[in-house]
Amino acid sequence: MTDTRKALEADGDSYFARNRMGIGTIADPVTDAVMQVHSTGSITRVLEIGCATGFRLEKLRIRLGADCHGLEASKDAVNEGRVTFPLLNLEQGLAPEDLVRWKGSTFDCIILGFFTYLLPRTHLFALASAVDELLADNGHLIIFDFFSPEPLSSSYAHHPALATYKSDPSAPWLWSPTYCLVSRCVYPLTEDPQLNADPRNWKAIDIIRKIPISTAYPTSIPMKSVHDGASSA
Questions:
Q1: d(Cα 70, Cα 57) in Å, to the nearest integer?
Q2: pLDDT tens profile 181-214
Q3: Measuring CA to CA, which residue among 83, 104, 102, 95 is closest to residue 12?
Q4: Which of 5, 57, 177, 195 could disulfide-link 216, Cβ–Cβ 3.0 to 4.6 Å?
Q5: Backbone angles phi, psi at 131, to 5 degrees
């Protein structure tokens, strides 16, 4: 096990311990985003990466009748979730490497639940590739994370071996014409107007649609050569 993996798993348990009492008790804009997507097309299979106990997946299972799966770094959160929500498929592990557990499966909605700010930058392309492999054409990717118009990094107060990274969390997908930003909601972390003016205190929820390759890259009409139809000397 690598030092980074140990650090991320340890932080998952400590994050869960710090926030356990509040999980699932406040307004949940991510669920609202999923319901927004569902209003335009039925969602039947959901994967949430960074799912905590699976509290959000359970709401979606009940509301949508969806087949719900989750990957979570915290072993403590997964153990609690398996007892509390036994109809969910919850796995302890890290993205991108442990997404291989769903290899061969596809989902029409994948949620990235507030973890990419801690993901080492060298893992971003692997995450994008793994998610792309699991997301069905015309499916939706919902990303909840810190947002900054300019890339920023800083030390992480809760674990000395980790750093935080803030930028556009959807950028690893939106470079490609096979992904289209449907909506973005940026909102502040606090109610303090002075703090809210600082982009380092912003979060965002993005809804991204996966476009089939045949649609994203329509067949072009070949250009006619200037020599076409010219008579020979």
A1: 8
A2: 999 999 877 777 777 777 777 899 999 999 999 9
A3: 95
A4: 177
A5: -65, -40
Pick the CATH number of 3-213 from 3.90.1300.10, 2.60.120.330, 3.40.50.2000, 3.40.50.150: 3.40.50.150
Give the Å distances, CA to CA, from 29 to 167, 183, 205.
Answer: 20, 13, 8
What is the amino acid identity at position 19?
Answer: N
pLDDT tens column, 121-169: 999 999 999 999 999 999 999 999 999 989 999 999 999 999 999 999 9
Q: Tell me the two tokens of residue 94.
A: 């890290």
Domain boundaries, the chain: 3-213
| Rounded CA separation 83/63 (Å) | 20
Comparing CA positions, the residue from 210, 170, 175 lying closest to residue 37 is: 210
Residue 75 is which amino acid? K
